[in-house]
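EI: anyone free to look at a 369-residue chain?
SC: sure, send it
EI:
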Amino acid sequence: MSILDHHQGTLVRFEQENRLRRLAPRTGLDFSSNDYLGLANAPELRTAVREAIDRGVAIGAGGSRLLRGNDPEHEALEAEAASFFGSKSALFFANGFAANSTLFAALPDRHDLIVHDALIHASVHDGMRLSFAAKQATAHNEAQSVEDAITGWRAKGGKGRAWIAVESLYSMDGDCAPIAALAEIADRHDAFLVIDEAHAAGVFGSENRGFAAGLAGRDNVIRLVTCGKALGCEGALVLASNVITDMLINTGRSFIFSTAPSPLMAAAVRAALKLIRLPERRERLHRLIGIAGERLGATSGSQIIPFVIGDDAETMRIAGALQAVGFDVRGIRPPTVPKGTSRLRISITLNVGEGDIGALGDKLRELKP
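SC: here you go
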């Protein structure tokens, strides 16, 4: 018996259930990335990186931020991000997964309650597993469910702080959280509201600052903006009060014990923040989102369009057929989405044009049962 038999058996089971994942090359028209504004390969970001190299910015940080890895580029990015997003401070992480998991592992304590939307990011779930706080899932995008969870916890003797965890724009459904109602609940219960703006920042809100831009600067609001989606770079920014970011510096194990992100990437993100303030790319993207609504029958109203098929194998068959004729559309299966809701996740980016969206709509109608 081989030491690998157990894991090999698991992979075989995944394949039998049409849930085996494989890495695939990047080919065809981009209907699957999160590069919504087409910045990942933008000449402006290439120039920013080239200029940073020319002025001596290092490629690697050389250590954690608390050792020798704290570069002036990191601090410049954090200052500019805090100013742009209207936050009292910002803290730069290597990616959104690290930021979310660190935040929820480090901040809520054993007397607290984390109330999270049922469809919250996997990174939040991983952070919650490391937290001693109580956890409760609530019905998707239902503010009353959040209210009921907190009042029920208090009625049973809950004495600590409530933490409300949501995404402003959900990555697999493309729908939006009731931010204003949740902010009222947080205020009423003296709770923290943690809003992941991963898919909204750069695309929605005042000057593309995200759906929760109006809550900027509140002590009980923590926002997360990823840099690897609309900003076209890599990393994530936690936007919060100085007390919260100082707590993460002191207690966030992933931040403390990880090598700092590349200073070059911090320089690239600074350039991206300047680009997303300009209206032209956003206006073009929103025109494409409107066309997608007409040609694809999309109802999400955002750049993320879910086509729920249900069956895992059928989902992958249709995705494969689309890829075979030049459309990079990926199938999403459990456990990423709930069982029975396997889907094509179509994202609209500036890497495609109006004609591409129309052609995809024609092919989808041909393939979809």
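EI: The CA atoms of residues 333 and 342 lie 5 Å apart.
SC: 👍
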